[in-house]
Amino acid sequence: MKPILSVKQLNTRFETFDGNVYAVNDVNFELMAGETLAVVGESGSGKSVTMLSILGLLPISTARVSGHAFFNKNVKAVDLIVLPANALNRYRGKHISIIFQDALRSLNPVQTVGEQISESLMTHLGYGKRKSYRRAVELLEMVGISQPDKRYYSYPHMFSGGMRQRAMIAIAISCSPDILIADEPTTALDVTIQTQITELIRRLQREMGMTVIWITHDLGVVAGIADRVMVMYAGTGVEISPVDQLYESPQHPYTEGLLGAIPNISATGKKRLVSIVGAPPDLFQEPAHCQFAWRCPYVFEKCWKRIPPNFKIGEGHLSKCFYDLKLKQPRTEV
Amino acid sequence: MIKMKNHQKENINPESTGLLVDLEEDRSIRARLYYIWRLLWRDKAGLIGLIVFLIIIIAAISAPLLAPHDPLQQNLIASRQPPFWAEGGSFEHLLGTDNLGRDILSRIIYGARVSIMVGFLGVSIAFSLGMVIGLIAGYKGGRIENVIMTLSNMVLSLPYLVFVVFVAAILGRSLLNVILIFGFTNIPIFVRVTRGEVLRLREEGYIEAAMSIGQKTPAIIFKHIMPNLLGPLITLATFEMSAMIFYEAGLGFLGLSVPPTIPSWGNMLAEGRQYLTYFPWMSIYPGLAIVLTGFGINLFGDWLRDVLDPRMRRMKK
Amino acid sequence: MLLGVLFLVFFLLHLTGDPVTLMVSRHASPSEIAALRQELGFDRPILVQFWDYLTNALQGDFGHSFRYRQPAMNLVMERIPATIELASVALFMAILMGVTIGILGGSNPNSILDSLARGIGLLGQTIPTFWLGLILIIIFSVNLGWFPTYGRSTFELFGLNIPDKSIVLPAFALSLFTTGQLARFTRSAVLEVMNEEYVTTARSKGLRKIRIYSRYILKNSAIPMISIIGVQFSYLLSGSIYIETIFSWPGLGNLLAEAVSTRDFFLVQATAFFTSFVVIGLQLVTDLIYMLVDPRIRYR
């Protein structure tokens, strides 16, 4: 099976007044049609920037993106990175949509919610006014907003937080996209609403057959929703693995640390909550060696010499680490 | 989204930061001056602004030394001379003479005195009184705050120029009056900014902390609030100063500023206007002096605002 | 509010100076001054004076002009149209130039257009209106002879008196400050909105650039601009004091300057009050427009 999206050697840096910020460093992953890939990492690890880079949504004046992101729906794959803006517009919102974390700030305050849905329909599907109105009302209903025909004319500030996120989802799925990127869609919400929104996205994914990239900083929620997980650290994907394998035997010291940091309810209480020592590195330096070396309990000489390549550990399981966590010894490179 | 400089010092390999020296942490005066200089050098516009501003201040202070002639000396024989590069001009009077034969360059240099004096003293009055009143309003709150803010907003809602013309017309022409007019009419804007900052600062954690451990009010005001107020107020002061210099010249132009016997840029323009068609240089050069002053102060003020407001500094580029 | 402002002005004036000194010639003896003061009622307590003035004002009596020997308000009313005309043309010019430059500058940060926007902002701030008027006359009237040096001349169109090219120089001179301000504010408003997350959303939806600009960037930056344009109109009314004096434009500003130089106290007072009145009224109007345009306020 061909992946619907394959990202290769993606690098993003920001040129700022104080120097370059290396936000994304050599990210590689493949996304299979219909699956859910969770992207996990602490804030600042480059999860969002990776997705924004793929969609060409970063500010042109400061962001420099290189690498490839092949979108592979039709016969011929398209590299989204090199696509000029107006050609990219045929993919954004139509084939790939994104839901942002903060719905209040992500919705246009001076346009009604309905208009914000129907403008996508008019742009991509060529719907007329009437048809797009009917469809927008349908979509509002689909995402669980009551009285959708009235709510069509509401402005975002009149909605509650959960409703705004639902509206955001309605916009994103309006053109039945192939890929839905959910960028921490529940972080800004109350706990009870978080579950509702998560369930909503999963239901829509099943009904519409979408592929989902789920960005989160919380490894705990990943287990229930994702098929595969990519763990990001300091702008790079350090480990990518099927979800159960990751929990059973994490192969990167950072993942191990993250898992150790999750309070384990089922455990008898003897297991201590381990946290990772130190802070993420300064992204102002171009990486020249493993970025986790400063905080890594298994660090050895080689780790300071160069960036570790992706080691294949099992089927669909890759880790960027010179140390074999199973055998407790450095890996031999082929 | 973009992770900026990491200030956590623990567990960081010195190699990672490349021995990054944080200039703001070095508190010696020399290091500070050097830091300011570097900031100025980085933003050339601010540097140019400061230089122009300094030149005008120096001209104002040392006018008797710099001016080639007595600004009041009339000389009907040498009257109505154009600047030296035009036909009929001479090096004796670089920018020409006016209808009474007074040297225009000298009058401009002396005119800087009025402008700078009005600007400095006017701003000093507005700054000091405005800050005190604003502190009271922001810190005390309640009815006092209401009264102060209502009054300030009323004055601020008036058309400023009309208001000032009205007051100046009644008070009559004198340097002291002009300074007092600008000083007092500008209090409300300083009150508003001070109060806004105080309200914002009171929300800050460290001031709440200082209050909660029972530090005395004056101590909090002097130690925690005042230092943070100075940045925005100094920025405001520079812009207000340039505005006052403009309005002073404007009043002079309307014949409402200092008495006509004192050389000031506005007075020169008012005189020049009568001879506009025949001796345009009488109007051109005093006006250029105003433009140059405004230019200098504004460039410097823009730079100052960017530097003194850390929020702005981070936003840059 | 309005009443408060009026009282404040009244109070400050009587606190700061004595209107009688404005009216009499410099050579008047103290006893003459005192006599006049008594005659005009300036020796009464200020509250009484204010009340008197207010009740008269409500009946349309703002005092008499000494010079014209007419009710001050009549003179003011006569002069209003010319000032409104001048200020409106200037505002129109300023919006046309300033907003356009501001949008171009703000949407292309750090480009040449951006420098232009900032440059015009700086120019507007550093060139005094009164000097610009003089310079324009020197260049375009005296040297090039394109426009008249002063005065307002009109031609008739559909029974209306429309000003001819005589309005160009005064309106332009008056507008430059506002052009600069608008360029500056539009630039920063657009720049700020461009960085908002909803613009990223709009781009993520694959909308066309035109739509992103019209529905997202411009619509959102227009909201803060409303109050700025309102304030600018007040500046234009004030600035007309200079410009109308320079160009002998028969408006309010000219009247005020004239009244000041002829020491026509009641006329000065009537003009100043009337202008304040208009300016404060304008602020109320902009607040109202604000409410109509910004849905966030409308529904609060």
Notable features of this structure?
heterotrimer, A: 334 residues, alpha/beta, 8-stranded mixed sheet, 4-stranded antiparallel sheet, B: mainly alpha, MetI-like fold, 14 helices, 0% strand, disordered N terminus, disordered C terminus
List the helices and strands and how they pair.
The complex is a heterotrimer of chains A (334), B (317) and C (300).
Chain A: E1 3-16, E2 19-32, E3 36-40, H1 47-54, E4 63-71, E5 78-79, H2 85-88, E6 96-99, H3 103-106, H4 113-125, H5 129-142, H6 148-151, H7 161-173, E7 179-183, H8 191-208, E8 211-216, H9 219-225, E9 228-233, E10 236-242, H10 243-248, H11 253-260, E11 311-314, E12 317-319, E13 323-324, E14 329-330
Parallel strand pairs in A: 3-8, 3-9, 6-7, 7-8
Antiparallel strand pairs in A: 1-2, 1-4, 4-5, 9-10, 10-12, 11-12, 13-14
Helix pairs in contact in A: 4-5, 4-7, 5-7, 7-8
Chain B: H1 14-17, H2 29-42, H3 44-61, H4 63-66, H5 104-140, H6 142-157, H7 160-171, H8 175-185, H9 187-203, H10 205-212, H11 217-253, H12 265-274, H13 281-308, H14 310-315
Helix pairs in contact in B: 3-5, 3-13, 5-6, 5-8, 5-9, 5-11, 5-13, 6-9, 7-8, 9-11, 10-11, 11-12, 11-13, 12-13
Chain C: H1 2-16, H2 19-23, H3 30-40, H4 46-58, E1 64-65, E2 70-71, H5 72-107, H6 112-126, H7 129-143, E3 154-157, E4 160-163, H8 168-194, H9 197-204, H10 209-247, H11 252-261, H12 265-293, H13 295-298
Antiparallel strand pairs in C: 1-2, 3-4
Description of the molecule:
- The complex is a heterotrimer of chains A (334), B (317) and C (300).
- Chain A is of the alpha/beta class and 334 residues long.
- Chain A is built from eleven helices and 14 strands.
- In chain A, the strands form three sheets. Chain A has an eight-stranded mixed beta sheet with strand order 6-7-8-3-9-10-12-11, with helices on both faces.
- In chain A, a hairpin with a 2-residue loop joins strand 1 (3-16) and strand 2.
- The model of chain A is unreliable at 265-271 (pLDDT under 50).
- Chain B has one domain (36-316): MetI-like fold, CATH 1.10.3720.
- In chain B, helix 5 packs antiparallel against helix 6 (142-157) and helix 11 (217-253) runs parallel beside helix 12 (265-274).
- The longest helix of chain B is centred in the middle third of the chain and has 37 residues, at 104-140.
- Helix content of chain C is 76%, strand content 4%.
- The chains are: A alpha/beta (334), B mainly alpha (317), C mainly alpha (300).
- At the B-C interface, helix 6, helix 7, helix 11, helix 12 and helix 13 of B face helix 1, helix 2, helix 6, helix 7 and helix 10 of C.
